[in-house]
Structure formats: C-alpha cells, structure tokens
C-alpha cells in the first residue's frame, strides 16, 4: 500500500449513495453486498493504518504486539479530528513507546478506569475507619482525626478536586487548590452557629497535608502510580502571632471565674484545669476518673492525639481533679454533662463569656494551652521538658518519659503553682509584674 496521505484518505472514503447507486443499496440491505471495514496500511511506518466503516466513518489506527506477544489495535482518532500527518506523528510516538515495552491499549484502558480524587478519599475513609490503614507511629488512625479528615474532604476537596482523575492532577493543581481554599472558594454557612467557614491559610495547609497523606497511602498500595501532592509548598502561617495570656491577664481571668456565680461549676473547673496542665480541650473534657493516678501525680491517657501517654500534673491540678464531685450516678467523666451520662461540651461558650467579663480578647482553649507552655518557658524549663509536659511525640520526647522522672514532676508542680498564684491573686497586685523572663517562644500543637 502507498503512504497514507490526505489524497489516499479521500480516495478510500466511501462515497455517499446517489440515484445511480439504488440497486447497490438494495443489494446491501438484502445481504448481497459486503459490510466489511476497509483497512489500508502505511508502507513507510510499519503498524500505522487507516480504517473506514461501511457507514463512511474513518479513523487512524496502529497495530502492534505488546511485550507478551499479543496483537493489539488502537484507534488514534477520526479522520475528522486529525490530518494524515498529525496521525502519523501520533502513531510514531505510540509505536516508539511500544518498542520500549509500553502498551498503549492497556494505558488507555487504565486511564479510563483510573480512580478520581473523590474515590481515593472514599477508599481512605473506609479503610481507615476499618483499622486497615495505620497513621503515625504505626497505630490506627484516631476517630477524631478521621472526623476532621471527613469534614475537610466534604468541605474542600470534593467540591474543587473530587471529579478529577488522580493521575491527571499535577503539583500545580494541588497548589492552585490550596490557593482557592485560602481565598474562601469553599466557604459555606456553618450549621447552627451562624457565620460562614471562610477557609484561610491554616485550613488550606492542613487540608493539603491530609491530601498528601491520603495519596501516599494509595501510592504505597499501588492504587495510583504517584503522589501528586509530593513536594507541595504549603502556605505559610508564620506571620500569625501566637496568643498567650500574661500573668496579669491570667489574674483577670481568675477573678472572672470567681465572680461567675451563674456559670456551671463543672465548666469553670475544666477551664481552670486547662490552664494548670496545658491539656488540650478534649483531653480535659473526656478525662475519666480511672485515668487519674494520685500516687504518681499523673494522668494515664489510654489514647490521645499522639497515642497512649502518661502526662505529669502538678499538685494544684491534682487537687482540683480529686475535688471534683462524683456527679449524678457516679459519671465516669471528671467533668460530666449537665444532662445524661456523657462529658461536658459547652466549655468554649462559657470561656468566651468569662473573657468578655474580664475584657480579654481572642482567648480560646488553645490559647490556655499555649499560655501553660509559655509560662514554663518563662520559668527557664527546657523545650524537651515542656514537650514532655504537653505530650508531644517528637523523637526522644514521649519515649524518654515512659516513666515519669522527678525533673518532669517538679516542672509540672512549679508551672502549675505559678499559674495558680496568678489565678488566685487580685489582678491589681499582679498587673505590674513582668509577663516574661527572657520571653522564649515555644512552638507546640
């Protein structure tokens, strides 16, 4: 056969039936004419050809044998979409890939059936909830972490990337996604609390970090060929000033607590414990009585954000815990709910009211935790000691405190005593005292 050109394509294209073709048309319907495809092969590029259907539809094709010796045929595109020369270039590229061990037919099938971002996220949630995927420190992913992941997937990932095939997503797409979240493109009304979720750098960075983890799990198990989020530059939040309470502000909060006659005593005690220990909000609210070890002056958490831990507490915090009443029907939680057998849940709202009365701004449970760490830093304790008090999992931190040593217990006592003194002293007497001794900033989560 000759070289495939536009002239050959036009010559091979079946002609439309005219009045003189009536007998031929009738013969075809009667089954007396051939209905076979017309195929012509290029005599310069082996395996490159053109095929016409009896209907007149034509397409460029390649024929090859894969690495296993099986004959395969791939359609490159219709004659209406490609010129003969464009088809030749594409055929040469595909056949070159075959010579290197590729299989264009299989690659096309894989691309068609490749999972989308939403499908990989659904797979991750299903497997992680079933305990089949392990997170940090080779432990099952915590339910609280999965709840946050599900929220980020539904709020940000599914609307912006969900329909995309993972294999088609690039690093630039991930960084564009991050910028869209920062800009608030996934903002939506909050349920029951008013206002809207507006995204922001922190949310965007955490969501991209979650996507990196999900893709890495899928890559490790060969569900996808690569992690498109690998190497992503997460948006910086370094310009955010980390809020902490000065000793004078702690005194103002303490006075507000003492004067809050109409607030729940359970909530007031929980807020006080956050300051005295640096515990996370949910570590305090879900704290069970059986986890408290008065002899060792610690709390034995069976699970935390970082796994099971021993956490040293100072004597002021221990006295506060042991002074809490048993609650209705001896509720197992130290800070029981006002109704039912669960734990207390309204502490953020009450903290906001206390801070309004004390004229303190931008105070959250996280700020109380940071305040504890900052006071410890002001008192000269090392970052390793502070990390042990906070329950960090950095290498050499939690492992070193499997058994609480005297130095860590001493630190817990001293920091709690300093904060208790500020809480229980009139604000006017503390306001002139410096809030920092050296002012070392401590990073923590």
Main attributes?
9 strands; 445 residues; 3 domains; Double Stranded RNA Binding Domain; 3-stranded antiparallel sheet; hpI Integrase, Chain A; alpha+beta
Write the layout of secondary structure elements.
Layout: H1 6-12, H2 22-29, E1 38-41, E2 48-52, E3 58-65, E4 71-78, H3 84-99, H4 104-113, H5 117-129, H6 143-161, H7 171-182, E5 188-189, E6 196-197, H8 201-220, H9 247-259, H10 265-277, H11 281-285, E7 292-293, E8 298-301, E9 309-312, H12 315-322, H13 347-358, H14 365-378, H15 383-390, H16 406-423, H17 427-430
Antiparallel strand pairs: 1-2, 2-3, 3-4, 5-6, 7-8, 8-9
Helix pairs in contact: 5-6, 6-8, 7-8, 9-13, 9-16, 10-12, 10-14, 14-15, 15-16
Describe the protein in words.
With 445 residues, the chain is an alpha+beta fold. The protein has three domains: 6-113, Integrase, DNA-binding domain (Double Stranded RNA Binding Domain), CATH 3.30.160; 117-220, no CATH class; 247-430, Intergrase catalytic core (hpI Integrase, Chain A), CATH 1.10.443.10. Helices cover 45% and strands 9% of the residues. The protein is built from 17 helices and nine strands. The protein has helices at 6-12, 22-29, 84-99, 104-113, 117-129, 143-161, 171-182, 201-220, 247-259, 265-277, 281-285, 315-322, 347-358, 365-378, 383-390, 406-423, 427-430, and strands at 38-41, 48-52, 58-65, 71-78, 188-189, 196-197, 292-293, 298-301, 309-312. It has a four-stranded antiparallel beta sheet. A three-stranded antiparallel beta sheet has the order 7-8-9. The radius of gyration is 34 Å and the shape is elongated.
